[in-house]
Design brief:
alpha/beta, 3-stranded mixed β-sheet, 2 domains, elongated, 23% strand, Histidine-containing Protein, Chain: A, 4-stranded mixed β-sheet
Length: 226
């Protein structure tokens, strides 16, 4: 079963406006128990994201105003080139990271994980097709996908992947799973079918790794080259 962002996201999201002052943003983060909030306009269109890290720029850069010649560490300046600008900001408009990295609820959980990794962010604003806020999906939400019990994962591989989706004889395939690690053993008619079975099993939510011990009766991997 293909897990989507809609399956794991948080729908009840606290947001702030661009005019929300620094102190109110901090209070919102603490009260909601979150590390970041989206910034939206009056129509709930997502303008950006403001996080604890954005607020802490003020403290990080504060010392330069009190110690002559002080400059923040080079790594801080390179990682956050707008650090000083944010440190001087007093509202969400000045503090936020914009544009926000967004995704739709219909996107797959795998797409969300890939986007977070590519953009080096911990969360994504989930938007509808008009760009309005629909929820938030975080790294923690995606990690929960791996909390499925082994029996449930094995049942999905057996029922959905092997019996329903492959359209080939899979009676000779055995599925074993321990702590999310799937071992496929036994036989299939063709080598390419065995490879497809392992690849599809690896896409099941909760699978940590697939160990492919399948054998085959015919090696058809070179047929296309002939």
């Amino acid at each position: 079963m293909r897990m989507t962002v809609a399956d794991v996201m948080t729908e009840k999201v606290v947001a702030v406006s661009a005019a929300t002052p620094f102190k109110q943003i901090a209070e919102t983060l603490i009260a909601a128990g979150v590390s970041a909030v989206p910034v939206t306009d009056d129509d709930r269109h997502v303008l950006g994201m403001v996080s604890e890290a954005d607020l802490l720029r003020k403290e990080e850069f504060r010392e330069q105003y009190y110690r002559e010649g002080y400059r923040p560490p080079l790594r801080a300046r390179l990682r956050h080139p707008k650090g000083r600008q944010k440190a001087e900001g007093d509202t969400a408009r000045d503090l936020m990271t914009s544009p926000a990295v967004t995704i739709t609820a219909a996107s797959s959980a795998v797409e969300a994980a890939r986007l977070m990794n590519e953009r080096d962010v911990k969360r994504l604003a989930v938007v509808d097709y008009d760009g309005r806020l629909a929820g938030i999906v975080s790294r923690r939400d995606l990690v929960k996908l791996f909390l499925r019990d082994d029996a449930g994962i094995a049942a999905e591989i057996r029922d959905e992947v092997l019996d329903r989706n492959l359209w080939v004889d899979t009676d000779g395939v055995q599925v074993e799973i321990r702590q999310g690690v799937v071992t496929l053993s036994g036989w299939m008619d063709r080598r390419t079918e065995a490879a497809i079975a392992a690849r599809m099993a690896g896409r099941v939510n909760g699978v940590v790794e697939v160990v492919n011990k399948l054998t085959w009766k015919q090696d058809d991997s070179t047929w296309e080259a002939k």
